[in-house]
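User: Could you walk me through two proteins back to back? I'd like the raw sequence and the structure tokens for each, with a short line separating them so I can tell where one ends and the next begins.

Assistant: Of course. Protein one, sequence then structure:
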Amino acid sequence: MLAELAQDHVPGLCHGDASSGNVISSGMHGWMYIDPRGMSGEYAYDAAVMAIRIAAVPSSIDIANFVAEAVQVPESRLRDWMAVAHAARV
């Protein structure tokens, strides 16, 4: 799965520490990351890590769908990154 994700990878600026403690709600502007490490990678991975952390809390919503829409990443790609992050025990 990681090899497939790397095939169409578009590098960009990533947070690098997308834990729930580094995400704040900024009202009309949605969610914002704070305290970045500033790394090169795919921001969908940051979103996947955040989704895993949120999914650990019982909820009635499909968090992967919600996060994918919020960060404008295809849900299937987010779920693939969630699997990679989970396997890495992030």
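----
Protein two, same layout:
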Amino acid sequence: MKRKAKAMGTTQSHDSASSWITSAATQPPTSSSNEDLFPVPLEILEEIFLNLPPDQVIRSCRLVCQQWKEVADSESLWRERCRREGYRLRDASRIPKDWRLFYFLCKKRRNLLKNPRGEHKMKGWQILENGGDKWKIEGLMVPHPDETVQKNFVTSYVMCRKAQLIDLEKEGYNPSFMDHFQPDIKISDWYAPRWDCGSEYDICVELLNQRKRPIQTFAPKTVLFEQWNDQKWNQMTHVFQNYGPGVRYIRFTHGGKDTQFWAGWFGIRVTDSCVEICPAADT
């Protein structure tokens, strides 16, 4: 009993939710019997687990005995944890295959791109092409669907392109997690032309292996806007699924130019770019 109590009380620091899940799939409980434990009704044990940090449930509680493992792995525990913490399905008809995985992906979910709206000038972006009068950051010409977006990057009369390289392991998604679960990777980008000038928009997003070679690529055709357009905001989206093992980096590249060759910043505008690791049921 003393050994098991010690296991229950162990607290470890983990900066990756993915390591909790992958280790849970490989580590057996320390005992297959719970005869030496005080009998605890399952609903009470589940309530106790719901009030513990999730990493402690995975790293410590489920290793105590078979009964604790069954509760720690149960669908009801993680479904209730999602409910209490506000992680809800966008489509109620698409039930997750693994509620524990759904919970941790929701908890870790965030935009992996830095400075997506130009609020910190060009910080975080690698300038690949800086043609014409170069990249510039301006306020919006027309309101964005998201009222919190107030700035955008603007291109000039020769091609302007910028990129970011996302290191998934540094962001907390370790290789074994990515290879085993292959979670959905959702990308999004907002772009808009000026009403009085034609422009073009390009985007390319690549899933890369350890050598930074492409495993899968999203590169749609160039989007062209004629002069005298409605200058509304458009959203480009894509979801990478079933991409296989080996993904270690994501390279996000976008940009464009104007088509009138006018000095200044009459080219395509981009803002609120996003790359997220998502639960499949949420994409």
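The CA atoms of residues 11 and 260 lie 62 Å apart.

Let me know if you want the two compared in more detail.
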